[in-house]
Amino acid sequence: MLEVKNLCKEFKEKKGIKKAVDNISFKLEKGEIVGLLGENGAGKTTTMRMISTMLKPSSGSINVNGFDAVKNSADVRRNIGILFGGDVGIYDRLTARENIRYFAELNDVKKEEINKRIDEMAKDLDMEEYIDKRVGKFSRGMKQKVSIARSIIHYPEVMLFDEPTTGLDVTAARTIHDFIEKCKSEGKTILLSSHSMKEVEKLCDRVIIIHKGKLVEEGTISGLKEKYNNNDLEEVFVQLISGGVK
Ligand SMILES: Nc1ncnc2c1ncn2[C@@H]1O[C@H](COP(=O)(O)OP(=O)(O)OP(=O)(O)O)[C@@H](O)[C@H]1O
């Protein structure tokens, strides 16, 4: 379960205060995939970073499986897995196993469990051949598998995907889609930010649309299409953020 209430994040700028996230509230039940949609700069990554405890909210609250993201940040980190687009935070000079182990240690996975768990995942993700090789020369697809393994090493219940397929080819994007669907079938709660309406339609049960930091609409994809009398989600999105409907 993931619940965000009246969440705000302000950044100080030369010109004054920038409200990157402005009083957003939403709730995701266990086993749901919810899409977080918004144009560049809408506040998606800032929202994700606050949920993942990387960034402290200016005000409002975040609850992850009963834990508060500010007061119980270590518990929240144990309950959350994050997959960013690209190979964010993968160290080229370390082997795949060392990269995954490093992350496991940060997330308090018991030392005696780490190697066993990595071996299991190497098998599941077909990485056994290169699990002990340095990541530097890996293909993008291989690095992607390291990122996937890293995001689930601690068996998180809630998964955050921040534009996970940006810049990937069709096959690599499909690996990520299959992984997201597997997470759902395991009952994980999933928040997915994406610019691809096709991806969102394929994967999400519901969507939340944000614009300039504010939540402008939420609902099921079919519900929104019906409400705005348009069968094209992209059209509904564009109209909403340009203030053309409501
Ligand atoms: N550390 C920061 N300091 C100042 N301003 C920031 C900071 N992080 C984000 N912002 C600003 O907050 C706003 C929201 O940014 P954010 O990265 O959350 O958008 P986004 O929806 O993820 O966009 P994109 O789709 O381009 O990734 C932007 O105007 C951005 O410039």
UniProtKB/TrEMBL annotation:
Residues 2-237 form the ABC transporter domain. The keyword Nucleotide-binding applies. GO terms for molecular function: ATP binding; ATP hydrolysis activity. Keywords: ATP-binding, Nucleotide-binding, Transport. The keyword Nucleotide-binding applies. Belongs to the ABC transporter superfamily. This is ATP-binding cassette domain-containing protein. It comes from Inconstantimicrobium porci. The lineage of its organism: Bacteria, Bacillati, Bacillota, Clostridia, Eubacteriales.
